[in-house]
UniProtKB/TrEMBL annotation, chain A:
It is found in: Nucleus, Nucleolus. The keyword rRNA processing applies. It comes from the Eukaryota. SMART domains: BING4CT, WD40. Residues 445-523 form the BING4 C-terminal domain. InterPro entries: BING4_C_dom, WD40/YVTN_repeat-like_dom_sf, WD40_repeat_CS, WD40_repeat_dom_sf, WD40_rpt, WDR46/Utp7. GO terms for cellular component: 90S preribosome; small-subunit processome. Residues 576-603 form a coiled coil. WD repeats lie at residues 364-405. This is BING4 C-terminal domain-containing protein. It comes from Ramazzottius varieornatus (Water bear).
UniProtKB/TrEMBL annotation, chain B:
The keyword Phosphoprotein applies. Keywords: Nucleus, Phosphoprotein. This is Uncharacterized protein. Its main location: nucleus. InterPro entries: SSU_processome_Utp14. Belongs to the UTP14 family. It holds the Pfam family Utp14. Residues 20-35, 48-70, 259-270, 378-397, 420-435, 506-526, 563-578 have a biased composition (Basic and acidic residues). GO terms for cellular component: small-subunit processome.
Length: 627, 736
């Protein structure tokens, strides 16, 4: 083999093309071997991620608000403007750029626009400095690369989401979507959609409340005066119909269409899909409102007497039951993002409850009159409340502040957010649907509809462009284009599931049941370190390090040289030696501990005087010097 | 010869000389001759000896020239020891000697060994050596093991045959030209300039053709290009410059010109195609209607706003405004006057909007609340003094607008729907007027002059209506003094005495209690309520609203909430613990001081740790519980797991969900890729040095191998398995 040649740059022999040049006495670095990690070949210099200030796991997978993007875009525009106006023409003769482009097209994976990447921002990347071993550093860096890859992939697959929820749009300014009636709409839509627009005349036992199942396929109707019916509302196939011979205050589907709970005059009863009574829960007395937490298998109820309770329906145990001390609980909704219950009270306050804390997590004054209805949007960021003062307020639940206010001409009885964040407000005769709720611009009336009277409940059907209204003389199903989520995750909720799939899902959801202890305002708290106990252990360590060195028991075996005097002397020296060692170790550990604590402090540190305006005399304040 | 003589230096007399002498004449010339004579002499002697009696034979004697002559020990003498080798060398290589030599040679081999080590020690030594050897042997595996440990994924068995997809170019390469003719042809074809390669767009020939222009041609082309560019830039500049022209005159002319041209076109159209003309007319009418209906163009124009602000002081501006008003009135009256100046209308609209915005807020505020009616009138008068005749015009205008509104409302529409729209339309106006947004939305309370009217909902509008409060960087407020005085002097007639009192009081106290801000919230709400409170429905609506407000006036929700918040804060605040026992260390009777008691209490009180600021400190209407959720604690991590040194590091590793719900299929596979995979049914054998060090051996035979090289090679060999997956993955990425 005569392929050997000398590389003149470093004078070392170099062999072959693919072999590395020898490095005579370089330290062996096993962990820095270049790996063909994810996206190594992808050149994406133009793609970068902006670091978020704080990682919010709930908001992480949802698009940012437009504030940040607009600033970036604005900057971009600004740069564009500054470009020289008479750019030289692209010279065809000089084919270098063309060549480059061509290469990229051939070999590289196309880059992802950074706006799209931003939507899937996974939070602050790992800072590997300070990790314990090189080995772990290497492993965690590999992991980090995979995370980046997953982010890019997610952004890239966005293109596959071809279906978009379409709203009604006007062609010219004279038209208005709010003036489009259901009749008009039904004329223009396809037959399948037409079938979804229907009325049920139920004159005798109203006013009617109702609920759709989580997959939007089944409908339960319950009249105030005891009439109950469940059906597959799309095929209009009746599942069961019966009369409970009592008044019904509320009804709730449980985890599937096979079970439902009805809050009757005294107790809560559970029925199956055939209308057979399965349980009568006497612990839940005079329940006025119910909601079901599907991931926790908890049935939350609010009662006439002001008791808020969570019942685990998978084991039939009461998880917790609190007296809210705020009177009648008729207004209650769950926050879909963190499973916290939101209650509306007669004194105008709204309180947030978890089953783990016997007092409201947050309480705020939303209206000066009784709260009549509230709902939280699917992202769990916005809440709409309304009271007798006929004002609808949209709250930002991250800041507990109103973002929008809306006046309506009657006091609403029911409100519901659709999956696409349309807000339906039901008043006595009128149902109004608002668009752009929670956005920077004012909410706009999107559609409206009149029912006969005595409206009791409005609710959007999940995964369908349908709004249901239950009123005194029946039920009507309205078409609201764009209200349903166009993409459903069949593993999560499947509108078209078969019986087998349903059974399978039941088992899976039971296996994946989330314990109720994890309910809290911040759903990501489970992954967090419990700071106080960490602090405590650290402090304890620091304290124990200064405790007297434990006595060392050492007795030499033989007396050997020096007799008993030598024996004691040796004993003494060994003890001393041990002691010295321990002290040394303690000092070293303490040092390390202090370092780590300092690191944590840096993160947790919030300037104490940040709320105070800056003063000229601030320069005389002693600055903290980090050790 | 005894064996001991080998160990101890024995001097053999006769041979000694010879052995020493031997070396001397090794190189002599007459060596062979002497040897012969020696031989001969020896032979003679031996023959002679045969006859001699045995006794006469010379005995071997020991002569030991040592200083100390000892019976026991053999003297070493001062001489060098004789080696057996030397002796052997001395002797001839005859057949008889060979046996002796062999014998002696055997003797040398069987040296007397030192006493063997003890068994245990011997084993110890063996072990030590063996350990060293083995560890040296095993060390060469280190890099392999380490690289395997950090490999992202390994599939066993390791030496799987790698499948490789052959590309077309590779396939084509297999066929080589063989005959000479073929080679020649290939050389010719390859040298052609019109070959299109993969990397370039143009062939060589094409490039040349493009480049090969005559000088004149090139120059001409260059000039042409330059000209075109220059023209373009002139045009651009001109447009830019034209768009920046502020002269009204110029624009008026421009517009006039445009209009004339349009008219001309229209006339022509009327002649040629009356239907189309009619259509156009209709379209124009429609457009106008639309404008009037939607108030699309009624934004606050720059000019109108500017003039309105100047109108207070500048006479000319006031006149201009009046002019505008006149025109506007005319416009609003005559619906069909199609040929009025459009731009003028626009300007008018702008101005109109400014005025209306201010007016609306005042009037509606007044109308919304029956208690305020009287005051609104009074205020109108006041304002008249300020704005003079311009106000009259406004009023007229307003009356007209109201008529319009009534007309508009007479259409069958839901009033609330209209209201929302109107409100939406007015939103930007509000912000531009620097009207304070609902205070609940502010994270921190700010100083506001309006706060003097905290308690009475009625007197604060003055400052608001003018909208001249400004927030200066330092957080101080600069308010129009006139407004403030207005607010101070204009005590409303309709307001009851306590209300007035409140107002006065609040004017004087200047510092703000952040907790009191809640009230402001509803004040702003109240203003929003009556933004356009005309039309019958609206009126009744407002009445109803007021009715409700009145009905609920007694249950002071705000006050209650405030109290509750204070209570909660008090309960959740950590408190000092007083551990002092009554009576202990106390003296009673006359002359005892209370100071000592105090001191004692102080001494035995455990101070509560300084509590952090409450989370809801700056949120007046919110109580956020500081109580810790105890039930989550067992589920949380209490200590930092091993490789991490900061909390942030740990949390960044668990920040990404790995489930399919949040990841694409490819990413999910990647994130949950098992560290080791095995092929079903395949035997997993231990690593074979033969395979791993294959190349290394070859290198060794080549004669230059270094440690680094070995490790690198070995690593690459092993990691190969892991890389197979990478290739697959990358492809999937491309596919997606």
């Amino acid at each position: 083999m005569d392929t050997r040649r000398t590389d003149m740059r470093d004078g070392r022999p170099f062999q072959g093309k693919d072999r590395r040049p020898f490095v005579s006495k370089k330290p062996v670095r096993y962990f820095d071997a270049p790996s063909d990690a994810v996206g190594h070949t992808v050149k994406e210099s133009h793609v970068y991620t902006r670091k978020k200030k704080a990682f919010d796991s709930t908001a992480d997978f949802v698009a940012f608000d437009d504030d940040t993007t607009t600033t970036v875009q604005r900057k971009q525009k600004h740069i564009d403007r500054r470009k020289p106006q008479d750019e030289p023409e692209v010279d065809l003769i000089n084919d270098v750029p063309a060549e480059r482009n061509r290469d990229r097209r051939l070999n590289d994976v196309p880059g992802v626009p950074k706006e799209k990447l931003k939507k899937f921002n996974r939070g602050k990347a790992l800072d590997a400095n300070g990790l314990r071993t090189h080995f772990h550093k290497k492993l965690l860096r590999q992991r980090e690369k995979k995370i980046q890859f997953s982010k890019r992939q997610a952004a890239r697959t966005e293109i596959l989401h071809a279906e978009a929820s379409g709203f009604l749009e006007v062609e010219d300014a004279l038209e208005d979507t709010a003036r489009v009636t259901q009749k008009d709409l039904a004329k223009t839509v396809d037959i399948q959609s037409q079938a979804k627009n229907f009325d049920l005349q139920l004159n005798d036992f109203g006013p009617y409340g109702f609920q759709y199942t989580r997959n939007g396929r089944y409908l339960m109707l319950f009249g105030k005066q005891g009439h109950v019916a469940t059906m597959d509302w799309i095929t209009k196939k009746l599942m069961c119909e019966f009369h409970v011979q009592e008044s019904i205050a509320c009804g709730q589907w449980l985890h599937q269409e096979t079970m439902m709970a009805l809050g009757q005059k005294q107790w809560v009863n559970i029925y199956d899909s055939k209308g057979v009574e399965l349980h009568c829960i006497k612990k839940l007395f005079q329940v006025l409102t119910m909601d079901f937490l599907p991931y926790h298998f908890l049935l939350a109820t609010g009662s006439e007497r002001g008791y808020l309770s969570w019942l685990d329906i998978s084991v039939g145990q009461m998880v917790s039951q609190f007296n809210t001390k705020n009177g009648r609980l008729a207004v209650m909704k769950k926050n879909p993002s963190n499973a916290v219950m939101h209650l509306g009270h007669s004194n105008g306050t709204v309180s947030l409850w978890s089953p783990n804390v016997p007092e409201p997590l947050v309480k705020f004054l939303s209206h000066h009159t009784a709260v009549r209805a509230l709902d939280i949007d699917a992202s769990g960021r916005y809440m709409a409340t309304t009271g007798n003062d006929r004002r609808v307020k949209i709250w930002d639940l991250r800041k507990y502040q109103t973002v929008q206010e809306l006046d309506v001409f009657q006091s609403p009885v029911s409100m519901d957010f659709s999956q696409t964040a349309l807000l339906a407000i039901g008043m006595d005769k009128n149902v109004q649907v608002y668009k752009d709720v929670g956005l920077t611009q004012a909410p706009q009336l999107y559609m409206q509809h009149y029912v006969k009277n005595g409206l009791r409940h409005v609710e959007f059907c999940p995964y369908e462009d349908v709004l249901g209204c239950g009123f005194s003389e029946g039920f009507s199903s309205l078409l609201i284009p764009g209200s349903g989520e166009a993409h459903f995750d069949a593993i999560e909720t499947n509108p078209f599931q078969s019986k087998r799939q349903r059974q399978e899902m039941e088992v899976h959801s039971l296996l994946e049941k989330i314990p109720s202890e994890l309910i809290g305002l911040d759903p990501s708290q489970i992954g967090q370190i419990h700071q106080p106990s960490l602090q405590e252990t650290l402090e304890q360590k620091a304290r124990t390090l200064f405790v007297n060195v434990p006595k060392v028991e050492f007795t030499p075996k033989y007396k050997a040289l020096g007799g008993s005097a030598g024996w004691t002397k040796r004993k003494e020296t060994v003890r001393e030696e041990k002691k010295r060692q321990q002290i040394k170790q303690a000092i070293a550990e303490r040092k390390k501990l202090i370092e780590t604590m300092a690191d944590e402090d840096e993160e947790a540190e919030v300037p104490a005087n940040s709320d105070r305006p800056k003063s000229v005399f601030d320069r005389f304040i002693k600055k903290k010097i980090n050790a | 010869m005894k064996m001991t003589s080998l160990l101890a230096p024995v001097k053999l007399d006769d041979e000694m000389d010879e052995s020493y002498g031997y070396k001397d004449h090794v190189d002599d010339e007459g060596e062979t001759r002497q040897k012969k004579s020696d031989k001969h002499g020896r032979l003679i002697r031996s023959i002679a000896r045969l006859d001699e009696p045995k006794l006469s034979q010379k005995k071997i004697t020991r002569s030991e020239p040592g200083k100390i002559i000892d019976d026991q020990a053999l003297s070493t003498g001062g001489l060098r020891p004789v080696s057996v080798g030397a002796l052997l060398r001395k002797s001839d290589s005859s057949a008889s000697d060979a046996a002796i030599k062999r014998k002696i040679g055997a003797g040398t081999r069987s040296k007397v060994l030192a006493q063997p080590l003890r068994q245990t020690e011997a084993r110890k030594a063996q072990r030590a050596v063996a350990y060293e050897e083995v560890s040296k042997d095993l060390k060469k595996w280190d890099p392999i093991v380490k690289s395997n440990r950090v490999a992202e994924g390994m599939s066993f068995p390791l030496d799987q045959t790698k499948l490789h997809i052959q590309t077309t170019s590779e396939y084509v390469k297999r066929y080589q030209t063989k005959t000479e003719l073929e080679q020649q042809i290939e050389a010719l074809v390859g040298a052609s300039k019109s070959n299109l390669t993969k990397t370039t767009i143009l062939t060589e020939a094409e490039k040349e053709a493009l480049q090969a222009m005559s000088v004149q041609e090139a120059d001409f082309r260059r000039q042409e290009l330059a000209k075109a560019r220059a023209l373009l830039s002139y045009k651009e500049q001109k447009q830019k410059w034209q768009s920046k022209i502020k002269s009204k005159n110029y624009h008026r002319h421009l517009r006039r010109g445009k209009r004339k041209e349009e008219e001309k076109n229209f006339e022509e159209l009327q002649k040629t195609n009356p239907d189309a003309a009619l259509e156009q007319l209709e379209r124009l009418d429609q457009k106008r209607l639309e404008e009037r209906h939607t108030l699309k163009h009624r934004n606050m124009g720059k000019w109108a706003r500017h003039t309105a602000s100047r109108a207070k002081t500048d006479k000319n501006a006031r006149e201009a405004l009046q002019d505008q008003l006149r025109i506007s009135r005319k416009l609003t009256e005559k619906l069909k006057s199609n040929d009025t100046d459009e731009d003028e209308e626009e300007d008018m609209d702008d101005m109109d909007e400014v005025v209306r915005a201010a007016e609306d807020t005042i009037n509606n505020e007044a109308k919304s609340n029956p208690w305020m009616m009287a005051r609104a009138e009074e205020l109108d008068e006041e304002r008249k003094g300020d704005l003079g005749d311009i106000d009259e015009a406004f009023e007229k205008l307003e009356a007209e607008e109201e008529q319009m509104d009534v007309r508009r409302r007479s259409r069958k529409e839901s009033c609330s729907y209209m209201r929302v729209r109107a409100e939406a339309a007015r939103k930007p106006k509000k912000t531009e007027q620097k009207q304070p947004k609902p205070l609940a939305n502010r994270s921190r309370p700010q100083k506001k002059p309006q706060r003097h009217s905290e308690s009475d909902d009625d007197s604060d509008w003055v400052a608001d209506a003018e909208g001249e409060t400004e927030l200066v960087s330092g957080g101080e407020m600069i308010a129009d003094t006139r407004n403030v005085t207005n607010a101070q002097t204009a005590t409303p007639k309709g307001v009851s005495a306590p209300h007035q009192k409140n107002a006065k009081q609040s004017v004087h106290d200047t510092d703000i209690d952040p907790r009191d801000v809640i009230k402001k919230v509803d004040r702003t709400d109240a203003r929003q309520v009556g933004i356009d409170g005309d039309g019958q429905d609206e009126d009744s609506d407002e009445e109803q609203r007021n009715l409700i407000a009145e009905a609920f006036a007694d249950d002071n929700v705000v006050e209650e909430f405030k109290r509750e918040k204070e209570e909660v804060a008090e309960v959740q605040k950590p408190k000092d613990i007083d551990l002092s026992l009554p009576g202990w260390g106390e003296w009673t009777g006359a002359g005892t001081s209370k100071q000592s008691l105090k001191n004692k209490r102080k001494k035995f009180t455990v101070k509560a740790p300084k509590s952090k600021a409450r989370k809801d400190k700056f949120l007046p209407g919110v109580i956020i519980s500081e109580r810790h959720d105890e039930k989550i604690v067992p589920h949380q991590i209490k200590e930092l797991p091993f490789p991490f040194t900061t909390v942030a590091q740990l949390q960044s590793t668990i920040r990404t969900p790995i489930g399919k719900t949040w990841n694409t299929e490819a990413a999910f596979d990647e994130l949950t890729m098992p560290k080791y995979t095995t092929k079903m049914g395949a035997i997993i054998e231990p690593l074979k040095a033969k395979n791993v060090f294959k190349r290394q051996k070859r290198k060794k035979s080549e004669g230059f191998v270094e440690d680094e090289e070995i490790s690198a090679l070995a690593k690459s060999e092993v990691v190969q398995a892991g890389r197979n997956r990478r290739g697959k993955k990358l492809k999937s990425e491309i596919l997606v």
